[in-house]
Specification:
The structure is a single chain. With 321 residues, the chain is mainly beta. It is built from one helix and 30 strands. The strands form eight sheets. It has a four-stranded antiparallel beta sheet with strand order 3-2-1-30, with no helix packed on it. A four-stranded antiparallel beta sheet has the order 4-5-6-7, with no helix packed on it. The radius of gyration is 21 Å and the shape is globular. The N and C termini lie far apart (60 Å).
């Protein structure tokens, strides 16, 4: 009887220890190129081989995640728009190696000059952290900063609840300009030294069907490009700009010199983001629970890979040199 009780108590103790320990996942080969997919609905990460175009594995997390960034080739950080902790993973071992508590949830995170820049929507701030999580600086921006765009020595904070973009000088961490924007902007891209394109959702019945053209030298709007519906993400490719519209499930290729649409293809359901490596484009379909692979030379679909539920973010890891 005593032995049986001892066995039960030992088993219970082990279960408690296991539940309190950070999860360990299947490790990934360090040399392999990856497409890292953040599945926000079922709190998981899917790993696709970036050149073989095959699903390698999926990690089921024990915390929310809406995006990831790489600190280096094998160290990955997850962040969440509903959770105030950053989790650091070693991809080779599959182990959680660190967690960093911040003051509120994080919608976007960038690694710039060995510092972490993140949006703090509840505080209306962009916060700068050291790699060990210490607060270095805070910049007040507009209402509900949600997305960040980095170009050269400037960081652009796109505000979700007002029509402004705050420009931060990365050498001083000071706001140097405010640009006009659109309601609920989600992305922007530098077209040339004076022109940017801005896209997003719009609000309510006033859905965004256009790309807003803004002159950043004059700090004024300079026109629109028709790209229905909800042009939420941009990517440069050769001499064109790719525009992803998640309301119409379409990808457009636009010539930035002429502003003409060169091609349009249908893609996955409710796409939010895309990323490219070499000659292939990867598009995450939030409602289709899949990633579509598109040949950039022909702009044709090659394959769709099923991932977790609600893929919202893509991070590319190139092959180790």
């Amino acid at each position: 009887m005593y032995s049986a009780i001892k066995i039960v108590l030992t088993a219970c103790s082990l279960l408690i220890l296991i539940s309190c320990s950070p999860n360990t996942h299947e490790g990934l080969p360090s040399a392999e190129p990856l497409v890292i997919v953040t599945n926000s609905f079922d709190e998981s990460l899917s790993f696709i081989h970036a050149t073989k175009h095959e699903l390698i594995t999926t990690w089921n997390l024990d915390h929310p995640a809406s995006g990831t960034i790489l600190l280096d080739h094998d160290i990955l950080i997850t962040y969440s728009s509903i959770h105030s902790t950053l989790y650091v993973y070693d991809l080779t071992s599959g182990k959680e190696v660190q967690s960093i508590s911040v003051s509120s949830a994080v919608d976007d995170l960038k690694l710039i000059n060995n510092k972490l820049y993140l949006t703090q929507r509840e505080e209306n701030e962009v916060v700068v952290l050291s790699l060990d999580g210490e607060v270095i600086d805070r910049m007040e921006v507009g209402s509900s900063p949600q997305y960040l765009y980095h170009h050269e020595n400037a960081l652009y904070a796109l505000n979700y609840e007002d029509t402004s973009i705050y420009v931060i000088d990365l050498s001083t961490n000071e706001v140097t300009a405010t640009l006009p924007s659109i309601d609920r902007a989600t992305d922007m891209i530098m077209v040339n030294e004076s022109i940017v394109w801005i896209g997003g959702h719009g609000r309510g019945a006033d859905i965004a069907n256009h790309i807003e053209i803004v002159d950043i030298v004059r700090q004024e709007k300079a026109g629109q490009l028709f790209a229905p519906t909800m042009p939420v993400a941009f990517l440069s490719h050769d001499d064109s700009i790719l525009v992803l519209s998640h309301g119409s499930n379409q990808l457009r290729e636009i010539n930035p010199e002429t502003n003409e649409v060169e091609s349009i293809i249908d893609t996955v359901a409710n796409p939010f983001t895309m990323a490219a490596l070499d000659d292939f484009l990867f598009i995450a379909g939030y409602d289709s629970n899949s990633v579509e692979i598109v040949d950039l030379n022909t702009l044709t679909s090659q394959k769709r890979i099923n991932v977790g539920e609600g893929p919202l973010d893509l991070t590319i890891r190139e092959e180790a040199k």
